[in-house]
Protein 1
Amino acid sequence: MGKKAILLSAVLTSLLGAGFVGYKHAKAQDQELSPEEEIRLVQEFNRMLAEGINPGEIWAEMGKEAFKKYNLDKCDFGLGPGKIEGALAQLPRYFPDAKKVMDLETRIGWCLQQYAGMTPDQVKKFAKECWGKRQCMGEYDAIVMYISMASNGYKINVNLKDPQVKKMYEIGKRIYYTRLGPWDFNCATCHAGQKEARIRATRLWSADRPGEAGKAISIFPKYLVRWSQPMTMHYRYAECIRQMRWPTFEPHSDLAVALSTFLYATGNGTEIKVPGIGR
Amino acid sequence: MRKRVLIASLLIAGLPLIAVSKQKQKESVKEEEVLAVLKSGLDQDPRFAPKLVQDESQKICSKYPSREAMPAKEIQRVMELEAKNIKYPQWGIYWGDWNEGKKLVNSSRGGRFASYGFSDKPTDKGGNCYACHLIEKGVPGGTMGPQLTGYGKRYGITKENMNTPEGLEKLKTVYNIIYNAWSLYPCSSMPRFGYHGALTPEDIINIATFLLHPDSPVNK
């Protein structure tokens, strides 16, 4: 363990160093890397992954501290206060204390209000700290990573027999197909159908092809090579929605919970493997 | 007497049926509720509110997972609605500047307005066409939409016939597809660029020219 931690911090140092040099060249996060540079980065990280190193794990170490700092050991994720092993696998679920269906990040946000004394605005700011940045080490991302990794090896098991959860699932499914906004998109524009398609070089997963939704979501939070930081599920939703030319997405909203309920339930049975790694 | 028994037994038998159908109604969520949840998760800035009003075609398209699943009547309705939603450049249909069209085809920046960290501007304009289409030979593109390499050539457009009524009619067809794809392909994945004002009629004629003009790199 000690050796691994040393290795990880070595990787991180070199990453931040490399990133700093890169930063001068590309200040805006969405400035695209050259295809060659991208391929090189992905190959490097594939090698790291094969050797069992994922930079995303650094966030889990930090998250362990932050989890205590913000009194989240009092937070019930559905399995009892502070119990996080397998918690992600059974979310979203209905929480009687909040009288709402919540997914992991929404629940974290609720608990931060209850046990860390944050206001709703502070929670939102906390959750969005690393949005639109690169090499950002945020405590929120760290907490999500720490809790998610405690479910590694568990299979996603959203309880659709609960009528509240089922209702959120139905709403999420309808949202998935709602065409809206000045570019007429819905989620299904890219992520549905039997025909395989690419957006530029990226192969798109489809909710209609068995196993693909589960494979896509079971690796979140996912470490992103191009930004040198992990991306949580809610940040992923925000990015999709930005590309869809909809207004800025609000984390911990019912929209997020509805989407999570539909997606995680569609992925029921898939083993959680966090953090994933991607371009 | 017998009749009464019959009616009574029919009523009793019918009760669970009514109960079941009521339950079903309860289970299926209402459209307003779906839209309310959706909008609750987006920035509430009143300037964006008009961008989130569904028009009739969007409402119809939201009901079906794909065009194959749409009844013929609905397909026709969308086509009728959208045929009326096309405007043309003030000088009519005539060839534009393919160099200008190329810039708009290449730019991926148009139309985004989410407000965190990124360098997109509300004034950025572009179709992000390569996301879904292969266009110029050798330039990487997506495969969600049909391949457009050599589009003008495949349409049979040459320097000799491009200004004939037939040539201009072909230009108009492509203009219509870009301006309002749903007028020809109802509920297609392709945004209605002109209808929503994401691109102006002049922009669209330039893009159509880029795709069809014999001098354009698309047709080399």
Protein 2
Amino acid sequence: MPSTHDVGGASGFGPIVREAGEPAFHHEWEARVFVLTRRLLQLGFYNLDEFRFAIERMPAEAYLGSTYYEKWFAAIERLLAEKGVLP
Amino acid sequence: MSGTDDHDHEGHEQSTSMASRVGELVAKLEAKGILSEAELDAAVEGFLLGTQRAGGPALVARAWVDPAFRARVLADANGALDEIGVDMTHWVRVKLRAVENTERVHNVIVCTLCSCYPVSLLGPSPSWYKSLAYRARVVREPRAVLAEFGLTLDPSIDVRVWDSTAELRYVVLPRRPEGTEAMAEPELAALVTRDALIGTAVCRAGAAGSRDP
Amino acid sequence: MSPRFRAGDRVRTRAVNPEGHTRLPRYLCDREGTIETVHAVYPLPDDRARGVSVEACKKEVLYTVLFDGREVWRERSVEPLSVSADLWDSYLRPERAR
């Protein structure tokens, strides 16, 4: 089981990059993924811990190589498949 | 909503492909009668509107002018938020804890395991808060991180980092800047930046209208 | 369910995390800390992440545990700090007061 997400104290991630006047979302699809994730949770397809665990189960390369909302989308896809909603 | 990587060809293509993948998934869910595209659009609109009403600065300004309210914020932040009409329900109704900066202690908030953040109070978190670099570093070298943010703390101040590992969300109650004694609540609220509520900045008089970097 | 610890009690976190989802960060494994706040009883995320319902899952008292930076980072310490995390009862065991 990868524990790539458990990064407290890890070295090598470099400086913290900040973006001036950052918008809430950088792309429309990110906003879609955000509300989709929340809606499916409210509908009871998964709980918050299952959602977090789905992100944590990503292979390390995928976890480190994906943007924030790409990880969310991967987690939704995986959970909907595992639960037989969209096999 | 504008893409920031429009000039980055590879990033643009990647994003276009994500947009179509998300669209396909939503279409499948809609075909199954689980949700509708219109409903998601409304949810996005509602969320973005809600973020403009983010309650953090109002909470702090009231706490600065009303010592009894401040005591209630520290003892039971959810109860205090109910008083000023801010709802902490986002994913679920979360318990909020306010941690107070003093002459002796400076507080900073992080979630090292994922990116827990008081969204309903502060709006969506900035990308740097969710970055691996912030999550990795701030629990080991907070002073160095704060210095990069332009905040150099006196060595006599204790730094306390709160790692949000459960369904408890944290918000920093910053110190009221000197020279603001005559200001009313709305003016004070304008001094309270998002970063001050995370603990990577302090509030400064004359900072009204300034934006977080 | 009455809390096993009180504010001020010394505790040690478990040394190794189990397989699966858990909310004890690795950097806080096998570290001595102090109970700062005793919270309510919460569903155990380790169970919930496996899809166990709120009704059927384990519930445990949640604590905010405060750690000194020197205890956490030891030879990797670079500056003074304290750090806290919110941890479930089964992540902790009692540690004799120093």
